[in-house]
Amino acid sequence: MGFLGIFLGIIGVGIGIVIGLVLGFYLFIYSDPQNEPFEDPIVKPISELDTTSLQDLVPEIPLWLKNPDYDRVHCAVWTHCLQGVDWLNTFLLNMWPYLDKAICAAIRQTTEPIVADYVGQGHRPIEAITFETLSLGTLPPIFQGIKVYETDENQLVMEPAIKWAGNPNIVIVVKISFLRIKIQLVDLQVFAVPRVTLKPLVSAFPCFANVVVSLLEKPHVDFGLKVLGGDVMSIPGLYPLVQDIIKKEVAKLYLWPQTLQIPILDSSLGAVKKPVGVVHVKVIRATKLMKMDILGLSDPYVKLKLSGEMLPSKKTTIKKKTLNPVWNENFKLVVKDPQAQTLQVNVFDWDKVGSHDRLGMQVVPLKILQPNETKELTLDLLKNTNVTDPLKKQQRGQIMLEVTYAPFREDSDVVTGTLNTPTTKENGAGFSGETPIGAGVLLVTVQGAEDVEGEHHNNPYAVIIFRGETKKTKIIRKSRDPKWNEEFQFMLEEPPIHDKIHIQIMSKRTRMSFYSKESLGHVVINLADVVYNGRINNKFHLIDSKNGLVHVELRWRET
Question: Exposed, middle or buried, 459 (CB in 10 Å: 0-12/13-18/19+)?
Answer without folding.
Answer: buried
